[in-house]
């Protein structure tokens, strides 16, 4: 148990930005759950990266919108942050990981809301959409998911990239909402962050190495590895 605890703590310390952000989300999620639905919506609207707030308080809402989960559970994000954000931070380092996060969150927010503004001006969206609710961490997550493409060795890299494009591209084709556009733009931004990945983390990760380890420690193979009769 002590060894497992030390391993968990060491993993958390290796990605301090990820888990500090996740801790903030934990407390803000608890705070939101204590609010009435009406007050919660009003509270989140003031921290939303919608057209109105971006045009009046861009810096404040871009920061605050990344500190809340809109009506969701915290636990799935803990899993996603561990699988994607923590891996990216450990690989790139905190500064470069944070650069990917900020670029994906900020640029995807402006581009998606700009597309929505264009739709309003061309009568393809109602004028009330300038006050639409848009908070959360999904744009930053999409960018980090995409940049991890460069962490994986070929040919698995291309399978991973295809999966990312399908996951984020399908909603854009079928739903065509401004958030679907924002997620896909964030993926493209993450892929464009390739220069930040150069010289980081040694050789790319090969999924076959994990399969080799699993086979090595399988019950039928352990006795041969230890040399016991």
Principal-axis shape equals globular
Q: In the CATH hierarchy, what is the architecture at level 2?
A: Up-down Bundle
State which percent range the strand residues make up: under 5%
- CATH topology grouping: Rhomboid-like fold
Number of helices: 12
Helix % is over 70%
What structural category characterises the helix and strand content?
A: mainly alpha
CATH superfamily: Rhomboid-like
Give the total of beta strands: 0
Low-confidence stretches: 223-229
Largest sheet: none
Query: Order of helices and strands, N to C?
Result: HHHHHHHHHHHH
User: How many individual domains?
Assistant: 1
Descriptive key words:
single chain, 229 residues, mainly alpha, Rhomboid-like fold, 70% helix, disordered C terminus
In short:
This protein has 229 residues and is an all-alpha fold. It contains twelve helices and no strands. The chain is globular and about 55 Å long.
What report would you give on this structure?
This protein has one domain (2-226): Rhomboid-like fold. The chain has 229 residues and is mostly helical. It has twelve helices and no strands. The model is unreliable at 223-229 (pLDDT under 50). It is globular, with a radius of gyration of 21 Å. The protein has helices spanning 2-13, 16-33, 37-45, 51-56, 58-64, 74-92, 94-121, 138-147, 156-174, 178-192, 207-216, 219-226.
List the helices and strands and how they pair.
Blueprint: H1 2-13, H2 16-33, H3 37-45, H4 51-56, H5 58-64, H6 74-92, H7 94-121, H8 138-147, H9 156-174, H10 178-192, H11 207-216, H12 219-226
Helix pairs in contact: 2-6, 6-7, 6-8, 7-8, 7-10, 8-10, 9-10
């Amino acid at each position: 148990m002590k060894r497992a605890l030390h391993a968990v703590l060491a993993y958390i310390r290796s990605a301090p930005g990820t888990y500090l952000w996740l801790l903030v989300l934990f407390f803000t999620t608890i705070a939101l759950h204590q609010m009435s639905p009406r007050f919660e919506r009003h509270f989140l609207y003031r921290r939303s990266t919608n057209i109105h707030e971006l045009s009046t308080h861009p810096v404040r809402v871009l920061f605050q919108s990344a500190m809340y989960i809109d009506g969701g559970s915290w636990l799935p994000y803990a899993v996603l942050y561990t699988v994607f954000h923590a891996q990216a931070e450990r690989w790139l380092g905190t500064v470069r990981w944070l650069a990917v996060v900020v670029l994906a969150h900020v640029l995807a927010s402006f581009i998606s809301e700009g597309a929505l503004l264009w739709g309003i001006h061309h009568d393809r969206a109602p004028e009330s959409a300038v006050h639409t609710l848009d908070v959360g961490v999904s744009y930053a997550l999409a960018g980090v998911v995409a940049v991890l493409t460069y962490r994986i060795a070929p040919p698995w890299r291309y399978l991973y990239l295809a999966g990312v494009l399908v996951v984020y591209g399908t909603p854009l084709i079928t739903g065509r909402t401004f958030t679907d556009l924002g997620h896909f733009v964030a993926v493209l931004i993450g892929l464009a962050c390739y220069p930040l990945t150069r010289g980081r983390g040694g050789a790319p990760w090969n999924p076959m190495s994990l399969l080799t380890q699993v086979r090595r420690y399988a019950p039928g193979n352990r006795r041969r590895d230890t040399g016991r009769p």
